[in-house]
Amino acid sequence: MKATLSVLLANIGFVLQVSGILVLVPIAASFILNETSATVALFITATSLLAFGFLTNSLCEKKEMTYRQSCILVVLVFVILGLIGAIPYFYINFSVGDFSQLITDSIFESVSGFTTTGFSVIPDLEVLPKSIILYRSMTQFIGGIGIVLVLLAFFYPEAKLKEFAKSMGLYKENHRIKKTFLFIISIYCAVTAIMIAVSYLAGYHELINLSSLVFAAISTGGFVPFSGAELTAVLTQPPLNIVIPLCMLFGATNFLLFAELYKRKFKSFLYSETTFFLIIISVSCVLLFSFFNISATDAGFHVLSAMSTTGFSYMPIGNIDTSLTLFLISIMFIGGASFSTAGGIKIYRFLLLIKTIGKTVTYVVSGKDNKVKLFDKLYSNAEIIQIMTLMFLMVAVIFISAMVLSLNGYDPLNSIFESTSAITTAGLSTGVVGPELSLGLKWLFIFLMILGRVEVVTFLVIFSRSKEKSIGLAVKNQTESIVVSDELSETPSEFIC
Question: Is 0.85 topped by the overall pTM?
Fold first, then answer.
């Protein structure tokens, strides 16, 4: 136990140090904008991250982690970042309640950011300094790509990345993990910079708000720097009515497909999760436009926002009818592509579910036991059972959470919507999640947001008493899928995505 703690603290220390360095960006913004209270709050946060990170890094020796230790690290990263990242919210005292509510609300907002959920309990965004608004969206940018994990590639040797990669569903024999990590972070940062630059040159010159929206969109996080009529105006007018949907689409796309486009391997892009993602979005838009009296523009934006699990909305979600609520629940649950910043069960699992149903029907009718094949990979019955079990557990968590909300007086359908939104890290809300939510239920949502970000399988590995070798094999089998290229073959990330 002591050895495990030492290994975990050493690796967490590095992650905290990197995070502390990144907080220097909003600190610089607070200096420029002369926001003294924000400067102090962010300085305390950066100092805490750097000091705690340096301390644990110095006292503990970095060693190669086991698979289970890697899974524990993934969860602890979000817990510790959520706690330390709450300092700016606590310092500016945005909550209208007592001390315990301020603590809970601050941690809630921080966890919502790092998990890219986008739920918010801030009563009025106008009370936040601009630099805190930027910091708020940066937490989503950091958590979206799992940058706290990807950055390990800059300093860790290839051999020590293997077990770490297993916890993300990425490990494969003879696979160059470091190159993959560096490629992903380069694409992620480059596209972010391009989108901000294009929007600025196209006429939107509110740089803090612009950066915040792009960070939130690419990370499929959904935090907004303002609300109400101003949000509607910004998201429905050029240039952001074009840039933000493109950012959401990028965030929900398997990043490694961009390597295929770079190599001019267009066939890989055409036959991929992204193609099915676009098909589902197109069909969904037609349905919303045809049956729910929603304009084509509004339908397209909100379908993309829900399915990419970004959570942007300028429509009153709490006032929509039952059938539309169920529709949004469905597409949030499906989510985006594997190895993207989107949440949900992922497109490939949804397609496997459909193929498995077809296989079962064929077997019952004709007795033929057809193989299930998806994206040039054959799935064994054991792998299919593992994937279906994971999906079942996700549904079970949603309904148990919804039951708890219903017992507290909330509408059952809205309770299912909010629970689905939390565990898929979508952040869309019918109005249940907000400043008035009880402290106990806020902590329930904090748990759901972390669980949704790391996925149920990670928790199963942590608490399982089985031998780690067996666990690793089972989860590796469950996560293997989608060969993108000979040089950058990948499996879906159960953490990044």
Answer: yes
